[in-house]
Structure formats: structure tokens, C-alpha cells
Design brief:
There is one protein chain. The chain is an alpha/beta fold. Helix content is about 45%, strand content about 10%. The strands form three sheets. A five-stranded parallel sheet has the order 2-3-6-1-7, with helices on one face. The chain has a two-stranded antiparallel ribbon with strand order 4-5. A hairpin with a 2-residue loop joins strand 8 (about 330-335) and strand 9 (about 340). Helix 9 crosses helix 10. Bound molecules: adenosine-5'-diphosphate (ADP). Adenosine-5'-diphosphate binds near residues 44, 45 and 212. Adenosine-5'-diphosphate binds near residues 52 and 180.
Length: about 375
């Protein structure tokens, strides 16, 4: 999905973004950082040492891993939740590496048929980790197959048809399931209850992201100074995947426009302006969403379905990709009647806020 300014032509534009830069909008949904695959692999942390931030979670995990090693039992099943790009898959890989076991990575939408989940469970070896991304999208049948596998390490296989149907109880190797989801609330109760540890991944601080950026730059042989790293960090939506993408884009910019000069604050700023990323890290669609609530719905509340139609984005993308950061920044608030733009959103877009209807005109 490429976010384009054309999506937003139907939005009444009172005041905001009247000096919108000529820039190329960003695809926040892309899972891969668009490097060469080997680079992507190289910059992904493999140990707790390399894994930046999430210190509370790291400490909990280190103790859990140590305890399971001492007891000589597989690690409890783990559920990680939080917005995309915060490091759930990376952390699962780190855990496997720290324990010294293999990890099989799959995602719920690719486990559509019963034989998909059965096949993967049967292929596991003792102690291995099964990582299921987007686990809230697992269908009912797959979930039911997973329950006894998670709890008692067996699956019920049925053979034959109608009258002659037989159920066989088949053991599966002891494994650890790591589930990842952007929506913990969408998981069924019985599935959620089968995880021993459920943990939310936090957004990253600017300092943590600057560390991510400097680490990746070193691996990728990109020259960047501290201020340049901080500038990119502050516009990366508190998300390492985006920080990694923006360092690559900034390096391209520095190469083409500045003959490969070291990325300074000024070069980073220019590069990111050219990508329509503002000083808070908002992209065109974020701003369009805020403008829509303010200009067309007097600041809200407005339902996410209405926003979805007007923006041409699906509800899931708005909820999973855009909203978490806008909520975290305090630019929108969720009410039971829909989304509301906060005073901060008016301020950020340069629109005057009044109590009566949310807005009047431009800031002076
Ligand atoms: P998620 O599974 O939550 O969507 P990923 O684990 O795929 O996110 O992380 C996206 C990218 O961000 C990875 O390629 C990785 O290089 C980087 N990354 C994630 N978490 C960290 C971290 N804590 N420290 C350094 N880099 C990270």
C-alpha cells in the first residue's frame, strides 16, 4: 500500500498543511525494511545484548529462560502484543538464539486449513519455538487444534468419514509457542489463557531509537553523526522498523544530493522533509486523518468506519498502523462514540481551537 496525497483530495482542507512540502509519502505498512535481504538479516538483533530498549521485558525473559534451563523444561508459551515494527518477531528470534533452539516462523493467515497447523506442529522437534504472527487472525478450527498441543502436547487427529470417523490422539514434541499480535483484545479468551507470559512491547524513546540507528548505520556502512541520528530518531514514530527504513532513505539522499557526505542533522532534516515526514514523525495519512476529524467533523467524535471510507484506508490499517502512534502522542483520543482530535492535534496542524466547535481558523 502506497500512501499518496491523491487519496486525500476529497477531504475539505481548512487551513492545515497549506504549505505542504513537495514530497513522497511513506508506506508505513511495509513489513520489510527495503534493504537487500542480507542487510535486513544483518541488522536484526540476535542477542539480548544487541536488542535495544524494552528493558523490563528483557529482564523478565532472561529470568524465565534461566529458570526453564535449570528445570530442564521448555519455556512457557509467550504472547507479545503491540503495534507493528516494535520488535516482536526479532525478540522471538533472540529468545530462540539465547536458548539455542530452532525457531519456525509462520503467520495465522497462512494456517488456513487444519492440515497447515497439524503439519507444522508435527514437524517440530523437542524444545523448538513456533512463532505465529498475527495470532488473533487464527481461525476457530486451528485454535481448537492448538489448545491440547499447547497444554498437553498432543493433537486429536480424525480419520474416516461420517459413521466410521475415528479420533486418534497423537503426541507432538514439547515446544514453545510465541504468538505476536497487534490486537491482544481480539484474541479469544481460551487462547489467551493458554499463554504463560503475556507482554506488551512499548514504544521506543528517542535515545533508544538513536542507538538503533547508529547500530544499523555501522552495519550498513552509513556515515551519520549523533545529531543526525537523533533527528531521524525523533521522526521515526517511536518504532525501530521505521528508524531503519529512514536511515536507508537518508543515506540515499545524502549520496545523491551531498555526494555521500556524513548524515548531519541538516541532511537528515532535508531528507525526511522530502518524504513528507514532519517533525513529530507524522506522514501524509496521519495528517489527513487529523484534518478530516477537525475540518469535517468539528474535532469529533467520529467513527473509525467513517474515517476509513473518507481516507480510502481499511479499518484494520487505521487501527493497527496509524492510530497507536497518534494516541501515544496524544493527538487523538478514543471515546465510545469514536475518535476525537485533541487540542494538541489542532496545535500541530496550526488550526485554532475553541471550546464550542473545536476550531475557528488558523493560528496567528
Ligand atoms: P514486529 O514483529 O513487532 O512487527 P520486527 O521484530 O519485525 O517487528 O522488527 C522490525 C525491525 O526493527 C527488525 O528488522 C529489527 O531490525 C528492528 N528492531 C526491532 N526491535 C529492535 C530492537 N529492540 N533493537 C534493535 N532493532 C530492532
Amino acid at each position: 500500500m502506497i500512501i499518496s496525497d491523491d487519496n486525500n483530495k476529497n477531504i475539505k482542507n481548512k487551513g492545515a498543511s497549506n504549505d505542504a512540502p513537495k514530497c513522497k509519502s511513506q508506506d508505513l505498512e511495509a513489513k520489510e525494511v527495503d534493504f537487500d535481504k542480507t542487510y535486513e538479516k544483518n541488522i536484526r538483533p540476535k542477542t539480548f545484548e544487541e536488542y535495544i530498549g524494552q528493558s523490563a521485558l528483557r529482564d523478565t525473559l532472561k529470568i524465565t529462560i534461566e529458570a526453564s534451563k535449570k528445570r530442564n523444561v521448555p519455556l512457557d508459551h509467550l504472547l507479545f502484543y503491540g503495534p507493528p515494527g516494535l520488535g516482536k518477531t526479532t525478540l522471538a528470534g533472540v529468545i530462540a538464539n539465547e536458548i539455542g533452539v530452532n525457531i519456525k516462523i509462520t503467520s495465522a493467515p497462512s494456517l488456513e486449513r487444519p492440515r497447515d497447523i497439524i503439519g507444522i506442529l508435527m514437524s517440530l522437534k523437542g524444545g523448538e519455538i513456533l512463532f505465529i504472527d498475527e495470532i488473533h487472525r487464527l481461525n476457530k478450527v486451528a485454535e481448537e487444534i492448538l489448545y491440547p498441543a499447547m497444554e498437553d502436547f498432543f493433537i486429536d487427529l480424525t480419520t474416516g468419514k461420517s459413521q466410521s470417523v475415528k479420533t486418534m490422539r497423537v503426541p507432538v514434541p514439547k515446544f514453545t509457542l510465541i504468538g505476536a499480535t497487534t490486537k491482544a483484545g481480539a484474541l479469544s479468551g481460551p487462547l489467551r489463557d493458554r499463554f504463560g507470559i503475556i507482554h506488551r512491547l512499548e514504544f521506543y524513546t528517542i535515545d533508544e531509537l538513536a542507538q538503533v540507528i547508529k547500530r544499523s548505520a555501522k552495519i550498513l556502512n552509513i556515515k551519520i553523526d549523533d545529531e543526525g541520528a537523533k533527528e531521524i530518531a525523533s521522526r521515526s514514530r517511536a518504532t525501530p522498523r521505521i528508524a531503519n527504513r529512514l536511515i536507508k532513505r537518508s543515506a540515499d539522499y545524502a549520496l545523491v544530493k551531498f555526494d555521500g557526505k556524513i548524515i548531519t542533522k541538516q541532511i537528515a532534516k532535508e531528507a525526511l522533509d522530502s518524504l513528507c515526514i514532519d517533525n513529530l514523525g507524522l506522514v501524509t495519512t496521519d495528517r489527513a486523518l487529523l484534518e478530516l476529524i477537525i475540518n469535517n467533523y468539528d474535532g469529533g467524535p467520529v467513527g473509525v468506519e467513517t474515517l476509513s471510507v473518507a481516507l480510502g484506508e481499511d479499518v484494520r490499517t487505521i487501527e493497527d498502523v496509524y492510530e497507536p502512534f497518534l494516541l501515544q502522542k496524544g493527538l487523538i483520543a478514543r471515546t465510545n462514540r469514536g475518535r476525537r482530535a485533541t487540542k494538541l492535534a489542532y496545535k500541530h496542524l496550526g488550526i485554532r481551537y475553541t471550546e464550542q466547535n473545536g476550531q475557528m481558523g488558523l493560528f496567528d
